[in-house]
């Protein structure tokens, strides 16, 4: 029995439902006692007068933090835009007015008055104060406002969003008559100057057509009726014109004054090809010889090249003046170095000689953007366009055009090659370079095309054919930036030989 009495005592001690006599006062008891013993005015003896009644309560914020109150979260997810009060009033008025059915006949008559009233009263047009503008066009920005970002909702098409498709007209832009034209494959009867003047040889006369003004001038006419013009070539600045004749002479004319400056005789046969390199004029003859003339000195004949056995019908200096390309009726394409003054005539001066063509080579063209690339075209027995690398001497590519090739020219605007053809197509073809894929054909001539030349702005091709017509084909788009740069360069270029021709 004593054992059971001991266990009961232990259980009674361990029970927690009895008050603990020695424990500290509970929190609620401290609060109740402090409120009961507080003074009527809320001040306790010995405390500072600036302590409030609520100072005994647990502080709502951590001590030491700033005293800003926690903002209320009511309405915290709303965005209220700040708008001028006047504009809000006007916008409210407009929203209520739009629901009314007014007279549409008076709308047009009062629109100007409303705009005037709004500008006078509000300082701005009420149409610009609408909250939402549901019109088809975006609002115009205020004057002086600049924004470099694109307007995403603009209905205007941007250049990047429009796929540009090139259009090449199949009809000529202009047709000029060329009566009494000599239908001879080996002659070069057309040239276009940097001053936009087209020179054409009609039998024994040379005519000038100003492409800008449209004026036509008869520059010269040979004295004997049986003589005829064989070749024409402008100087780089376009002030002087070299003329090769059938009486073995080369004439030099001042176009501005319409005066012949000199007549140079050195060949023994007709002069069918001409090409300028600064003050040196190169001429190719039916004898197969090529002469270099220094037009600054009285003894003009300074050099002779004897690489061809038949008539030299093609002659072109490279744009950088390093090489002279010549083509002949002997089916050869030759490349000669720059003129060395004081040297004797020597065939060893030949840089390259190619004999792959099977017909006369009259068509020659240097690539303006690749100085070592030369294009040549063969006659009726060959009909091939061949692209040569002068540095390596290799033939880069060859294309059978199925037609006689009379002239070639590179078009820098689109990096293309233009060819003029005789039998059997009698047309003009545009080829993509260097793939030589055909871009377009220009048909219209009724006889073989004899010569082809590009305008100074590279936008227009001029062709002359045995049907006694000159046709201008506007086949290449003009780059405005390049056009202005070209015009400035032409105006600023001074004549190299203006002061020294004798």
Automatic annotation (TrEMBL):
WD repeats lie at residues 222-263, 305-336, 379-398, 442-474. Residues 28-81 are annotated as: Disordered. Residues 31-51 have a biased composition (Polar residues). Belongs to the WD repeat CDC20/Fizzy family. This is Cell division cycle 20 homolog. InterPro entries: Cdc20/Fizzy (IPR033010), WD40/YVTN_repeat-like_dom_sf (IPR015943), WD40_CDC20-Fz (IPR056150), WD40_repeat_CS (IPR019775), WD40_repeat_dom_sf (IPR036322), WD40_rpt (IPR001680). Residues 176-473 form the CDC20/Fizzy WD40 domain. GO terms for molecular function: anaphase-promoting complex binding; ubiquitin ligase activator activity. Pfam families: WD40_CDC20-Fz. Residues 52-63 have a biased composition (Low complexity). Keywords: Repeat, WD repeat. SMART domains: WD40. One of its GO terms (biological process) is anaphase-promoting complex-dependent catabolic process. One of its GO terms (cellular component) is anaphase-promoting complex.
